[in-house]
Amino acid sequence: METETNKIMENINYQALMNLLEEQHGKGFVLKNSDMFYLWYCVQRNQVSENKNQMIKFLNENNILTEKRHITSTVKRYFKFRNILPDMKDSTKEKLDRADEYFNPIVRFERVDNMFLGILRNENNYSVVDISNGTEEVVAMILNEGYVSLRNDSLTTKQIEWIKKNKEVII
Predict the structure, then answer these.
(1) Structurally, how many domains does the chain consist of?
(2) Fewer CB near the last or first residue (10 Å), C or N of the chain?
(3) What is the DSSP string of 66-85?
(4) Is the domain of 89 the same as that of 30?
(5) pTM, full prediction
(6) Exposed, middle or buried, 115 (CB in 10 Å: 0-12/13-18/19+)?
(7) pLDDT tens digits for range 91-125
């Protein structure tokens, strides 16, 4: 299921990229080159290496393109335009990865009283996050040792119980 969710997220990210390119260059340009942009995106997101044979295999095995001539043409155009295609900044990759975390949290987001809570994995711990105001607010931390550190004084009894119940599931 995690792999399926990651594929869905990458499709959403790719669609956002296509919308941006369309705004900048027009629909005709994007439609004519969308296969090449998709390949570029996959290389930038480390889904396939920048190797001609690996790219052909990737496009074919994942049924992204079905005709051998189209696959070959796409890979050739990628290398033709590679010098003018940008490299995705690490900060952009980090933002995309962070967005992936929200679509694939450790514990799915759900309404608990006046908050919309979910649990995300940090480097060494877990963050209990409220996104009810459209921003990320860490309301508690669940430490690997099993301790809960509350970061919000206005949590209700039901919210604290939700945190404790889900702590038992993940620790």
Answers:
(1) 2
(2) N
(3) --HHHHHHHHHHHHHHTTTS
(4) yes
(5) 0.56
(6) buried
(7) 878 877 777 777 778 999 999 999 999 999 887 89
